[in-house]
Design brief:
The complex is a heterodimer. Chain A is an all-alpha fold. Chain A contains eight helices and two strands, in the order αααααααββα. Chain A has a two-stranded antiparallel ribbon with strand order 1-2. Chain B is built from three helices and seven strands, in the order αβββββαββα. Classes of the chains: A mainly alpha, B alpha+beta.
Chain lengths: 195, 179
Amino acid sequence: MKNVFKKGLWENHPIFKQLLGMCPTLAVTTSAINGLSMGLAIIFVLNFSSGIVSLIRKFIPPQVRIAVYTIIIATFVTLADLFLKAFFPSISKALGPYVPLIVVNCIILGRAEAFSSKNPPKLALLDSLGVSLGFLWGLVLLGSLRELLGAGTIFGIKVLGDFFEKWVVMVLPAGAFLVLGFLVGVINYIERKRR
Amino acid sequence: MKTLRVVLVLTLVSVFSAGTLSFFELLAEKRIAENEKREIEESIFTIVPQTEKIEEVKDYYKLFDKEGDLLGYIFLAEGQGYQGPVKILFGLKPNLEELLGIEIISHQETPGLGAKIDSGEFKQQFRRLRVLPKIEYLKKKPSLPNQIQAITAATVSSRSVVNILNKKIDQIRKEFKKR
């Protein structure tokens, strides 16, 4: 039981191990706060859709299962989008089209197809909680590193003094690939050491 | 029988989804509209701090001061920047010959370079800027009242702002003349 939860956090980490959901991962992690907000939006969407898919899994005819998952996911994505627009307009602006694009995020559809449609709600929720929290820490780490190197701040708080020459490239698209590649390398290294 | 089940499940799921969404949309709708309006109003006050009253006309705003005198007009212009659309809110004096100022509503320019179009230093140059015969940008210190200095290493973004403004102002002047 516990293993199901832990898998998404490290062993099967959606970003660093499976390299899934690259579109939001690379695009929105220009700052720590953007990474955090995206991660929270994913936690909301993934857990609710996994729970519902698991609850109605026995009623879904196999021919149209993907269509049903997509409708369920799209519903929660739209809710998250409305919520951000109404209560956090500046974050909604910063994330731009990437909130509505969660609909096509392969992590979420992947969990529905591979796990929650085959397991009871309790297990499905443990799995989705693990995966979404894993995604969250990945995004926050990536966003913090890029913000630190590209702007000298983390969550908008100045960390590096004026001596620091900002690497603007780190908050540009190219920086996303550089930092992601570096982190995947580091995590593989840690993994190898542990064995 | 099998087909019937497919139709039934899809219909039920869709109806449920549509119902949930309509309900929450109704709740959020008002707040979202308010947020958008507040953003525009805040920008207007940044451009013309002495504004007392804003009157919305078709596609622009009229600004009045305490005595009820017309301070100028606010327009929204949109055009292509270096990486994506740039939306600019700008104020014109009643004679349509001088800018009151500009505010960048949204843009996708390069952080650290083109994004400086949203910096105070750059926007400040548009205060009381002559728009006749048209706004010009230079790569050195400007000498005429209708010139601004482009941002170093971001000439394309600077030029986009100037072009977007010139195009819209030209259009406005023509429309106002007809009245």
